[in-house]
Amino acid sequence: MEDALGISGPQRFALRMIGVHPGITAGELAAVLHLHPSTVTGIVQRLETRRLVKRASNATDGRVAHLYLTPAGVKANKPAAKGTIERAARATLTRCPAPQRKATASVMGHFAAELMKI
Fold it and tell me: How far is CA 38 from the centre of its chain?
């Protein structure tokens, strides 16, 4: 993915979540991604350097910044972009018979529930 898009897997996930939740804070993003806040700080800084993400200060608390995609970030955030994790997952699942897709969805649902307990 880094070769195709110029961003790492964790950066891609962060970009996707910021796109889904415009205005999310870094702390909220860390919680959604199940990453340490300092790890998310580095990810966001690299996305800012690439001008894919911008910060906007909170009007009432200057210590808090909200994250938004830039126009370049919106372009890079397309779900069907070549070289992305989601495209590979979609291609794999498309080739699987319906019973296997249903079983995969069930297992991933259980996995997501376990992640929420961390």
Answer: 16
Q: Model-level pTM?
A: 0.74
CATH annotation of 2-78: 1.10.10.10
Distances in whole angstroms, Cα of residue 6 to Cα of each of 22, 24, 46: 22, 23, 11
Separation of alpha carbons 96 and 35, rounded Å: 31
Per DSSP, 8 falls in state -
CA distance 40 to 37: 5
Residues of the chain with pLDDT under 50: none
List, for residues 76-97, the tens digit of each pLDDT value. Answer: 888 766 777 778 888 898 999 9
Contact 81, 4 (CB under 8 A): yes
